[in-house]
Amino acid sequence: MPSADPSAETPRTSAYEPVSPQEQEPVRPTREDEVARSGSELVGGPVGRRVLFAASWWTPVRVIALLALGMFALGMIQKMPCYNGAWFFGASSQYTHACYSDIPHLYQGRGFADGLVPYFDRLPGDMEYLEYPVLTGVFMEMASWVTPGSGSIQHQEKIYWMVNAGILMACTAVIAVCVARTHRRRPWDALLVALAPAFALTATINWDLLAVALTAAAMLMWSRSRPVAFGVLLGLATAAKLYPVLILGPLLILCWRAGRWRAFGTALLGTVSAWLVVNLPVMLLASDGWSKFYTFSQERGVDFGSFWLILSQRMDSPLTTDTVNTLATALMLLACLGVGALGLTAPRRPRFAQLAFLVVAAFILTNKVYSPQYVLWLIPLAALARPRWRDFLIWQACEVAYFLGIWLYLAYTTSGDAHKGLPTEGYQLAIVVHLVGTLYLCAVVVRDILMPERDVVRLAGDDDPSGGVLDGSRDVFVLGTARYAGRAALHTAQAPTVKWGSAADVPR
């Protein structure tokens, strides 16, 4: 007897099965995800088909955006002990309350309280110039304009944090909406972003959400086959943080495999042009200040969150900064080569979000520093690459454990003889936990690429919803045994109407 609950329908078991008319409709997460189905009991159980598609103001995108804003607000509340004084009175207090943020400290520390112009005016002390990319520096400067210059410096720093938090909240809404719209049939996957605990906890530590929002918007534009807009937004994101430019690597591999050179060239041109528009004026007029971000990245030593720190703390003769730079660069290049080889040899062309997640994760894992807010770079990509609640929550649990671990370690090192907090060995364990969590998510993404019949997105009947012009494209360049995978599937396909990736669409 068939189930009365539409959410209990049996999902497809093969990526090569025919696509039914029902599979053209929005995907219900409670149908395909056991954790989502169990969690839905908290709000009355799985949503039925009639309710899901009924006309209502409460569309998935609006619900997700509001939930994301609500979680961001909870993250702000979590910072209240610091807002009420822990930032200013006692170094260890902001760590024991796990509410540290760079934003209020850099208001004075980087000259905004004194009206200094980033990149043009020298800072007192050893830093000399602002060590952030240009667009982030503009963000910081504009927030300082809104901050009143009257009152005590502590009052100004609190207002500065609040102004920045308001703008970062707007970035959060942009991220949630863009992720919800990137996969047209899978808006509810963006709940992974909206409800991510690590997102709420780390959103106001630094200014990373500006680059994350621009990257999410770029991914949305690419999914809509708009390479010019994608390139412009990615160029702006790279002007705010370095990591977004890495996404061009996976895009090159996928466009190579699909023969979409014109789209890639357009995206690359847009990226370079937008980056130059932002950077070139500062580069020409204040070259020393502009280059500080890049020289600082090379000169800084091993720092929090990385496996390099564990090695440094356990070695009798720690590696020099130059040696670590060389080794980290070599490891990153090897990881990129591995991702490239995976993209060209996989039995079915990987989805854009999958390779994008892997290359950004590789950059973070091999870097000299893995700050707690770097998880923000990965969360939107993870939601698109592996929209499974179980794996996502395992990873988030590891990141929350690290979030608590780093602040307890800093509390231990700043509390004097009291030693309140987590000793070095405990902090090293916290580092291992969050590195292993990220590696675990990378592993399941790689498994989905090598075994596309297990990819939840493709089981639902899609090819590459974030791929734009790549979605449904035939392969023109494939390495290894992947070229034969489609031919084998040809003999098992029974229906003529299939999504791309079945043998009917694989070139012979």
UniProtKB/TrEMBL annotation:
Membrane topology qualifier: Multi-pass membrane protein
Residue ranges with Basic and acidic residues bias: 25-36
InterPro entries tied to this protein: GT87, UCP010361
One Gene Ontology term of the molecular function aspect: hexosyltransferase activity
Compartment(s) where it occurs, according to its Swiss-Prot or TrEMBL record: Cell membrane
GO CC terms of this entry: plasma membrane
Transmembrane segments: 57-77, 159-180, 192-222, 228-255, 267-287, 323-346, 352-371, 392-412
Region Disordered: start-end pairs: 1-41
Keywords in alphabetical order: Cell membrane, Membrane, Transferase, Transmembrane, Transmembrane helix
Superkingdom, natural source: Bacteria
Pfam families for this protein: GT87
Protein family membership: Belongs to the glycosyltransferase 87 family.
Protein name (record): DUF2029 domain-containing protein
Organism: Streptomyces venezuelae
